[in-house]
Each structure stands twice: as C-alpha cells, then as structure tokens.
Amino acid sequence: MHPAKPADSLQQQASPVTNPSQALPQRNLNTLPSLLEAAAWQPAHQQDWLVLSVEQVRQVEHAAFREVASYILMQAAGQRSAQKIMDLVQHLDHRCPQVVVLAGPGNNGGDACVVANALAEQGLPVELWQFKGGREGSADRQKAEAGCKHPNLRHSQWGKTTLQLKPGALVVDGLLGIAGRDRPKGPIAEVIAAINAQREGLGRTGHVHVVALDCPSGLDCDTGLAPGEVLAADLTLTYIAAKTGLFMSDGKDVCGEIWLDTLHCDALIHQRIAQGTLGAVVRVRGRLSQMQRLPRRQHAQHKGSFGSVAVLGGQHGMVGAAVLTARSALLMGAGRVALSLLAEHGHSSPDVQWPGTRPFLDLNFPEIMNKPLQDNCNFAEILAVGPGLGTSPEAQDWLDALFDEALEHGPLGVKKHHWVLDADALNLLAEHNRLKTKWLKLRKQSPECHAVITPHPLEAARLLNSTVDAIQRNRPDAARELARQFDCVAVLKGAGTVIAANHSPATRIEINGTGGPALGTAGSGDVLTGAVAALLGQGLTSFDAAACAVWLHGLSVNALPGENQAHRVSHASAIAQRMAQHYNQLLQQGTR
Ligand SMILES: NC(=O)C1=CN([C@@H]2O[C@H](COP(=O)(O)OP(=O)(O)OC[C@H]3O[C@@H](n4cnc5c(N)ncnc54)[C@H](OP(=O)(O)O)[C@@H]3O)[C@@H](O)[C@H]2O)[C@@H](O)CC1
Ligand SMILES: Nc1ncnc2c1ncn2[C@@H]1O[C@H](COP(=O)(O)OP(=O)(O)O)[C@@H](O)[C@H]1O
Ligand SMILES: [K+]
Predict the structure, then answer these.
(1) Which H or E run includes 457?
(2) Is the CB of 81 under 6 A from ligand 1?
(3) Could you read off the pLDDT of 180-206 as tens digits, one per residue?
(4) Which of 28, 216, 433, 560 has a Cα-to-Cα distance from 415 of 20 to 30 A?
(5) pLDDT on residue 590
(6) Ligand nearest, relative to CA of residue 142
(7) In degrees rounded to 5, what are phi and psi of residue 328?
(8) Nearest atom within ligand 1 for CA of residue 74
(9) CATH number, position 350
(10) 172 and 209 in contact (C-beta within 8 Å)?
(11) How high is the pLDDT of residue 24?
(12) 502/495 Cα distance (integer angstroms)
C-alpha cells in the first residue's frame, strides 16, 4: 500500500549497521528537538539489520535512559511515527476519511497518544481510544496522554461508544508493544476482534489500513507467534531495533512492511555487542550483502572447480526426492553431480543385474551420473545425504557404511567430504546413537570440512529430543543448539528460516527474509539441499552456502523480470528452475 521509498544508493544499502553519526546524543543534548529533528526510517531487507529479543531491547532501553529521559524517547518514537504516517496518508489514493488511534495501557499506548496529538496537529480528524483497563500507566504514558489536547482530537471510550470503521479508514495500533506476549485479554481482545470483523466486512474496496506501533498487537515479539487475536498491520513501525518475532512464523503474516527507526540507539547496541553484554545477536541480511556472498565464476575455471556433488538417498518409492536434490545441485552450478540410490543398492554393480530393470537414468537431466555408494565417496567432495532415504534397516546400514567409509579415509585418506545432511539422514541420526557418535567423530576428525544440516521443525524436534512446539517457541535458540550438538551449521527451516553456526564467532546466526508459503510443497526441502551442496561446491563456506541457498530458494517465489506477480503456489521442480533463474540473473549482475 505504501509506495516504496526510492532505493538508496547501493553504497548506502551496503553500509554496515553501525553508523557513528547516529549515536545517541549525550546528556548535554538531552532535549526534545535534537532527537526529533528528523525521522530516520529504513525499510526491512535492504540493509543488514540486527534483530533483538525483547530482553535485549529492554537492556538497550535501560542503557538509553542513562543518556536521555525515557519520555523524550517516547516523544521521538511517537513524533517520528506520525511523520511516517503522514507520508502514508499523503500517498493514499483517497482522502483519509477517519483516523482511529488505539492506545493500550502501557508505553505503547503512550506512543499512540503522542501519534494521535501529532496527527491532529497536522489537521487530521483523530479518534483516540484509550484501553487502560483501570491502570494509570507509567508516568511517561500519563504525560503523553495529558498532552492530547488538540481540538482535532476526539476522545472515545470503549464500552461507552461504538467503534465504527469507515471504508478507507486508518487505524493506528498502540494497544500492546513488546510486553504483550500472551493472548490479548479483556477490552483489548474485544477491540481487535471487532476491528478484524469490520475489516473483513469492508473488503478490499473499503480497505482499512492498519499501522502498528513497534509491533502488531497480539504478536509475541520473540517467538513470532500470535496465541490469540492479533491486529494484522499493513505497516509496522518498529523502534530502537527490529525484534525477532517480526521475521518469523505468524509475524511474517501480520507485520506488513516493516520499517525501523533506531532512535539513535545504534551505537549503544554496538557498544554492548562489542562488550559482549548483549549475548548472541541475530541478523537479517539485506539484498546487497546477500549478493556479495555469491561465488564469482572465472573464465579459467572448469567443471572440476565448481565441485562434485553426490546425492545419496532415494529408497523405493522415494527416488524422486534424491533426483530433485541432484537436479537442483546441477541447476545451481555444481560442476558434476551423481546419484546413489538406495533403491538400486546392490543392483547397480556391473556384476549384478536386476532382472527386468536398468540402472536409473534421469532422462531430463542425463548429465546426472549414477554410481554405487562407494564410488560416489571417491568421486564427490560434497555429499548430500538423506532425501528420500527412508529409515529402514537398509537405510541405517547404508548411512553406517557411508560414515565408516568417510572415517576410514581419515585426515590422511584419499578423500575428505563436505556434508549436507537432510530429511531421513537426520531422522536416522536422531534415532540411532551409534550414527550420531560416528557423525561427531567424523566432524572431529575433519573440522576443516564443511557440514550443514537442514531440518524442518519436526526433524529438529527429533534431533533435540524436544517438541515442535518448543522448537517454534524459540527458533533462534533451537538452531543454535542444533549447530552446537551436531557440530555444524544448522538450517532450521520454516517461515523465517534460521541459520546458525557452531564455530567462531559463536554468535553467528541469521534469519532469512525471503520465501513464503508457496515453498510449502513436497520436495521443496530436497531442492534446498541441492542448492546448499552446489554452493559448497562453488567454494562458499558452510555458513555462506547455507544462508545464500536459503535466500535464493526463497527468492524463487518472487517475480522474475517480465513477470508481474510473486508466486502463491509452486511445485518443487519449478522452485528449482526459478531459483536457478534468479541465481543466474544475480551472477550476471556481476556484483563481485
Ligand atoms: N522504553 C522506551 O525507551 C521506549 C518504549 N517505547 C514503547 O514502549 C513499549 C513497551 O511498553 P511497556 O513495557 O509499557 O509495555 P506495553 O507493550 O505497552 O504493554 C504493557 C501493558 O499491556 C498490558 N498487557 C500485556 N499483555 C497483555 C495482554 N495479553 N492482554 C491485555 N493486556 C496486556 C500489561 O498489563 P499487565 O501485564 O501489567 O497487567 C501492561 O499494562 C514498546 O513496545 C514501545 O512501543 C517507545 O516509546 C520507544 C521508547
Ligand atoms: N510457509 C512457509 N514460509 C516460508 N518457507 C516455507 C514455508 N513452508 C515451507 N517453506 C520452506 O519450504 C521448504 C520445505 O522443506 P521440507 O519441509 O523439508 O520439505 P520436503 O521434505 O517436502 O522437501 C523449507 O525450505 C521451508 O523453509
Ligand atoms: K502495537
């Protein structure tokens, strides 16, 4: 709904998160005008952003309060939000018929009061609705409320007056901020439900725009889950730092466009990171910095330079999963790709003919070789293991034999492998301690080799002996724990895929910003596995290969040039093709 701000120059987009000129003013600048002089909103997914937990944001807030009065920060948040909202109102294709500002009991409600008064000062007819639930609110909130005196403001009370939205109305949501973790209760739940029902009634033509202050009310800013009623926003204006939950799970559906104004707190955040007092910090990478990770292909290189990938999996009835991985690896630029299919195990040796069958050949991609397991161990540098493998005793033995083979070659042996473990390879690892022990031995034996695991939440729950619910409640921690326990880079898939490293810097962790529900189709994960393997083959480190593959996999749902729409549904083969098209196009742009 909001016209995208013209892209900043590439140089600006690439600039690191720290900007010394944005340091919080010191005490002698503890005045309102200096903080309010100009809003500094940035849109998500252009620059690299730090993404903090609620506790980390609280830490930064408290540090900020030592430099500047908390009321001034509230004023800054409110005034800057009002500037952004005015910008939005001016770009609407109709005159805004009604502005409804909802102010909750906490400081988020204080922000809303500042916004309400500022919008009224700009000449908008504003209805200010208070939801204090009998609480007085903090001193800052009380001050902000007391300042709501502009004659354009109409004060309304829930329960006494009926809230009736007009078509095209604007709603500013200051009900619950970062403290609103549980299911909304009482009148707050009632007003959210009423607004949601009226929005549905008004339909697309009467679209009601919702702007969330700091976060959509009803969304848990840590987990990204909405346990009850949630007020989905078209635009979320978040303060100080982006919060993890805005980029994950329900957060992906209810935030709309996300814009951040750090209120000059960047330097404080970086100080704390440098001191190690903030703990692990998650990042969301911007487009340009993702592009800078892509491999550079040189003329003097050849197929041997781009990696030999072997895909090991595909039991009877599940051959397609392994084939998808192999095709994806090929499309994503691996130099050579081969398959070993469990379905053919014992039948593909020249000595043994399987009556009536021939060894598998992918007729669409005859470039993909087909080799027995041991041959592939010698052939490939990158082993992508698990798609379609199954968890039968034969699959267990196969994985066992594979680990033994790799362990035998050892640090002085003929071949060292980089690994991508997915799907049933992970289920087997979770189920059989013997296999986990061998895996960890392998990792210890060749720590310089890259290793990536790509579980979805259920596989992650099995690996961590946990539940899907517990995993989804803290996806960054779960990814970190997977990386630690399995001594590798862990990719925890889903809405807001998390990529975590186990090695130094120990805190390296990212949330991916691309993709969407169109990726939720059988074989989509197999395609991702092939992409990770291909990028490892092209020389990326495990973390970069994983993060980049996840990003490109997500881009596959976006429109390509000449297309005018993102994809709502897809299938795995199309995901692989489209991912490769995006990849190619980015390589052609030649950023490196
Ligand atoms: N500090 C700063 O520097 C800045 C802070 N800023 C702003 O402050 C916000 C944080 O403010 P906050 O801590 O007051 O919490 P907030 O989210 O407004 O709500 C707390 C109230 O809600 C209530 N409540 C909670 N859950 C509920 C539920 N499920 N259903 C119903 N009610 C529920 C809860 O009730 P209680 O649990 O106490 O009974 C309490 O009364 C932050 O997001 C940002 O917008 C900006 O001004 C920038 C500078
Ligand atoms: N709603 C969604 N939003 C974003 N990504 C999704 C969504 N649903 C699925 N995906 C992505 O699609 C892929 C599915 O992988 P997986 O569950 O392993 O599928 P399969 O086993 O069928 O290959 C993962 O990369 C996951 O992150
Ligand atoms: K809010």
Answers:
(1) helix 457-463
(2) no
(3) 989 999 999 999 999 999 999 998 888
(4) 433
(5) 66
(6) 1
(7) -60, -45
(8) 47
(9) 3.40.1190.20
(10) no
(11) 54
(12) 22
Top mutation candidate among 456, 497, 578 for ligand 2, by most atoms within 8 Å of CB: 456
The whole-chain average pLDDT of the chain stands at: 89
- On whether 456 is known to bind a ligand per the annotation, the reply is yes
Q: Which residue puts its alpha carbon closest to atom 19 of ligand 1?
A: 106
Report ipTM for this prediction.
Answer: 0.94
Cβ-based neighbours of 53, under 8 Å, separated by 6 or more:
222, 243, 244
Kindly state whether residues 115 and 264 are assigned to the same domain: yes
Structural domain for 140, as ranges:
46-284
For the Cβ of 172 lying below 6 angstroms from any atom of ligand 1, the answer is: no
> Is 230 a member of any domain?
yes
- Helix (H) / strand (E) element for 102: namely strand 99-103
Claim to verify: residue 174 and residue 314 sit in the same structural domain? no
Atom of ligand 1 nearest to the CA of 64: 3
Strand segments, DSSP code E, in 326-378 are 336-341, 369-370
Q: What is each CA distance from 433 to 209, 396, 428, 436, 443, in whole angstroms?
A: 53, 11, 9, 5, 15
Whether residue 259 is found in the same domain as residue 171: yes
pLDDT for the residue 238:
98
Distance CA 338, CA 538 (A): 16
How far away, in angstroms, is 180 Cα from ligand 1 center?
6
Residue 251 lies in a domain: yes
Residue 205 and residue 327 in one domain = no
Q: Is the pLDDT of residue 20 over 80?
A: no
Could you give the CA distance from residue 173 to residue 478 in angstroms, rounded to a whole number? 31
**Residue 173 labelled as part of a binding site:** yes
Q: Is the pLDDT of residue 9 over 50?
A: no
Whether ligand 1 lies within 6 angstroms of the CB of 180 is answered as yes
Is residue 507 in some structural domain? yes
Ranking 117-126, 274-283, 430-439 by mean pLDDT, the lowest is 274-283
For ligand 1, pick from 72, 173, 176, 246 the residue to mutate: most ligand atoms within 8 Å of CB. 176
pLDDT for the residue numbered 425: 98
Average pLDDT score over residue span 573-579: 96
Q: What is the rounded distance in angstroms from the CA atom of residue 590 to the CA atom of residue 592?
A: 5
292 within domain boundaries: no
On whether both 278 and 315 belong to a single domain, the answer is no
Same domain, 369 and 274: no
Any atom of ligand 2 within 6 Å of the Cβ of 10: no
Q: State the average pLDDT over residues 283-295.
A: 93
Number of Cβ within a 10 Å radius of residue 466:
15
The last residue of a domain, from among 284, 302, 325? 284
Domain boundary among 284, 299, 332: 284
Share of the chain above pLDDT 90, in %: 74
Could you tell me if 177 and 102 lie in one domain? yes
Helix (H, G, I), strand (E, B) or coil at 149: coil
The label of the residue with tokens 């906490």 reads 106
**How many structural domains does the chain have?**
2
pLDDT tens digits along 347-379: 544 444 444 556 788 989 999 999 988 889 889
The answer on 315 and 272 residing in a single domain is no
Task: Using the atom order of ligand 1, give the atom closest to the CA of residue 140.
Answer: 47
Instruction: Determine whether the annotation assigns residue 525 to a binding site.
Output: yes
Nearest CA to ligand 1 atom 17: 177
**Residue 490 assigned to a binding site:** no
Cβ 419 vs Cβ 380: under 8 Å: no
CA nearest neighbour of 244 among 472, 428, 567:
472
Return the ligand number nearest the Cα of 104.
1
- For residue 251, what is the domain's CATH number? 3.40.50.10260
